[in-house]
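Title: [Solved] L,D-transpeptidase family protein 3D structure

Original question kept below for reference.
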Amino acid sequence: MRPGVVAVLVSASLLVLGAAPAGGPAHRPLPARMADTGGGTQLITAVAPRTGSTEGRVTWWDRRGGGRWVKAGSAPARFGANGLADGATREQGTNTTPTGLYDLPYAFGIRPAPRGTAYRYRPVRQDSWWCQDNASGAYNRWTEPRPADCRAAEAEHLITYTAQYAHALVVGFNYHRPVRGRGAGIFLHVNGRGATAGCVSVPAEAMRRILRWADPEDRPHIAIGTSGGATAITRY
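Solution (posted by the thread starter after getting help):
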């Protein structure tokens, strides 16, 4: 067969397979392919292969001059025990991680903030709780002490999660204008023994690196989603 015919057939095969040309859209950094990145110059992406996945990858990015996104670090991640769910319709108690784009209001931890942390860092004390009681005025808020209208069975006693909450960042899911029944207490935190109850978790050293990297003046956000489909991270 003539070489020219081979070249034509190979090119056609690549098109059928959906191969992108060098330098095409598939080769752009993930943040450059997203609908929104929050408007700042720092972004954390948390990507799972599909909604049923409990593991994936967290990557943190910096936006440099000219709008170019550069990877600053990456680590394996864990998600909810029941995978991920669209943040706009997620229901509390489903053990799913909400997809979407969220701000990161503040950091906290049982252990002191890693040296170099610029974020406001709230120390966990013996009477620190996160209220998840839908009937409480403190729903989806840190409380010290736990208010009378927030049942202990519907709240997290933060200091008891010695591994997970050694260091953490609050994820702004359902935080600024809480919708009852949507979910509360979603964080980026240190790994526990397995999948989470709806948070995103990473190894301890990765969490420390993220806290040293994150700068509130750069308005970092976190985008959570899947590789494709209706909850694809590029949609957020």
